[in-house]
Input
Amino acid sequence: MADAVRSVIRLHFRQRLPIDAKADSSPVTIADREAETTMRRMIGETFADHGIRGEEFGAHQPDAEWVWVLDPIDGTKSFISGSLAFGTQIALLHRGVPVLGIIDQPITEERWVGLTGAATLLNGKPVRTSATTDIDQAIVYTSALEQFDSERSARFSALASKAQFTRMSHDCYAAGLLALGGVDLLLESRVFDYDIMPQMPIVLGAGGIVTDWDGRPLVNASHYETVLMAANVELHRAALALLLRR
Output
């Protein structure tokens, strides 16, 4: 599926495409729709009894034992503006638990694959999260500050003010960088299953930690109010200590 979607997305990249607004005002293009349609068709042809939850076309058999979670272009704003900070995300859930995750950057041809019980791979080679344990040495990423309400903005700022530096607007590519060891902490707010579930096996398989901002594990849900991904247990503990201050 990731190979097939690469061809679809590359055809439209850095073209002046019509941009539509979805119900939540987020942008969508023909590339998003064609890419998800391609994946849905391939799943249906091979695994007719599997379910699908996709960003563009909703749910099909969502209560199935095996469910695919699809985000054809995570980082559509980056894609539209010609930036490389986007990717295709694919997850496979077994009874609600993500057991396979893929982040694929179709232009640079980078592909992260996370599989439960195995080391995360980037283009076939194992990767590992960083060994950074001190907040003042940590590199912190988030996708969009406007996703934080005032309370979460204050909590994020408390952490970011102690970090080495903060970057924004990398979406799924930031999770790939965290698994690779370039990013130490990734914080998100008000995100959906298709944003996060593909990233979970990748980050966990590289040695990272994934919880919400209160340290609770993420369970199968359609959306998440907060997400914290950390390179290791020690850094996760240090980040929570700052996030939990009111």
Q: What stands out?
A: Residues 30-46 form the longest helix (17 residues). Residues 2-126 form a domain with the Fructose-1,6-Bisphosphatase; Chain A, domain 1 fold (CATH 3.30.540.10). The longest strand covers residues 66-74. The chain has two domains: 2-126, 135-243.
